[in-house]
Amino acid sequence: MKSFRAFWSLDPEVTFINHGSYGACTKAVQQHQQRWRDEMEREPVLFMSRRDAMFDAARASLAPFLGADVDDIVMVPNATHGVNAVIRSLRWQQGDELLVTNHEYNACRNTLDYAAARWGAKVVVVDIPFPIADPQQVIDMMLAAVTERTVFCLIDHITSPTALVLPMEELVPALQERGVKVLVDGAHAPGQLDLDLANLDADYYTGNLHKWPCAPKGSAILVVPKRNQEDLHPVAISHGYNADTSERGRYQQEFDWPGTFDLSAWASIPFALEDMESKMEGGWQAIMKRNHNLAKKARDLVCEAWGQEPTAPDSMVGSMSTILVPRDIIARIDKRGSNLYAELREQWGVQAPVIPLPDPLGAAVRISAQLYNSLDDYHKLASAVLSMRD
């Protein structure tokens, strides 16, 4: 089997199965970004004056990758920024209800709570079960929570703590039919899932490019259909707010010039997409299929070793999976005053996030599958955890 590890500069002493947290750039992308930085520092004024062309090139490469209209795409530093831009642009009435699940990423949930308190709106949390047996449970529970006061929903495409792929294709239109505007937090989705955002037609969609597409840190997208662009503003109000819109729309002008930023991450997006696509025959479709299959095989391997059942059906697995840790092992680790994440990292050189869960579940390990991973990585994880029984 072809080894992809050499394309990355990851520590060879670390078994890295945590791509989902912050991603990792290939060496080629790091070098490409540095060339942009070198050019910027040679002539900063001229470099910044060319930002429109950089953003347009990034949008042109992203439109087919995301299945999105090029005019609906703007760049943001990360998905949390995208969530903030949307939620802090909206205005609610006293008593309006805002839906969110109990699996929502903490930073984005904080944004929703902040805005709700400001406007006197009510956050309604839908408790999606975990482990889960069927994606239809998500649809049924979300729609059952909609009332005549429900106006907005923030929902993960792929949940961060539990790695569940939620059924957006069914859920988004069903909520919209009930008068609910939907913001999809797709932080993990680009590069894991074959996206068709124009067809999905969510009111707002944000996603990271530094994770699965392996673009530099600080590169993410916000995709908003034209019907919702007029009243949307970036977190930082800057020059684009009163820019001339005769040749270029205000929506993109506002987001394209948020002040002085290192533009190299955004400028590197086209190269990053091409660099990853070149790694496998069949390009992105082959990469996503390979990572999805590896994630399922890894989940089954670890579940069998630990005597656990999968926490979700295959249809809810992308390139990550979350596996429950045997309770007796957690109890032993707790008794000696340690924690599972630290022991995995410090004693075994395994980098994997440990997710605390409410009783009686205890904790889970979230595994990621990227091109540089192989089944040997997950064998090591399984053995390391089992050794903690001793």
Provide tags for this entry.
390 residues; alpha/beta; Aspartate Aminotransferase, domain 1; Aspartate Aminotransferase, domain 2; 2 domains; 7-stranded mixed beta sheet; 42% helix; 14% strand
What report would you give on this structure?
The chain is an alpha/beta fold and 390 residues long. It has 2 domains: 5-17 and 281-387, Aspartate Aminotransferase, domain 1; 28-276, Aspartate Aminotransferase, domain 2 (3-Layer(aba) Sandwich). The chain has 16 helices and 12 strands. The strands form 3 sheets. A 7-stranded mixed β-sheet has the order 2-8-7-6-5-3-4, sandwiched between helices. Strand 6 (181-185), helix 9 and strand 7 form a beta-alpha-beta unit. Helix 5 packs parallel to helix 6 (106-119). The model has no long low-confidence stretch (mean pLDDT 96).
SSE arrangement:
Layout: E1 15-16, H1 19-22, H2 27-42, H3 44-49, H4 51-66, E2 73-76, H5 79-87, E3 97-101, H6 106-119, E4 122-126, H7 136-144, E5 150-156, H8 168-177, E6 181-185, H9 197-200, E7 204-208, E8 220-223, H10 250-256, H11 264-267, H12 269-277, H13 283-306, E9 320-324, H14 327-335, H15 340-348, E10 350-351, E11 354-356, E12 363-368, H16 375-387
Parallel strand pairs: 1-10, 3-4, 3-5, 5-6, 6-7
Antiparallel strand pairs: 2-8, 7-8, 9-12, 11-12
Helix pairs in contact: 5-6, 7-8, 13-16
Number of E strands: 12
CATH topology of the largest domain: the name is: Aspartate Aminotransferase, domain 2
Number of helices: 16
Structural class: alpha/beta
> CATH-wise, what's the superfamily of the largest domain?
Type I PLP-dependent aspartate aminotransferase-like (Major domain)
Q: Given this structure, which CATH class of the largest domain is correct?
A: Alpha Beta
Mean pLDDT: 96
Backbone CA Rg: 21 Å
Tell me the β content: 5-15%
Tell me the strand order in the biggest sheet.
2-8-7-6-5-3-4
Instruction: Name the helicity range.
Output: 40-55%
H and E string: EHHHHEHEHEHEHEHEEHHHHEHHEEEH
Shape: globular
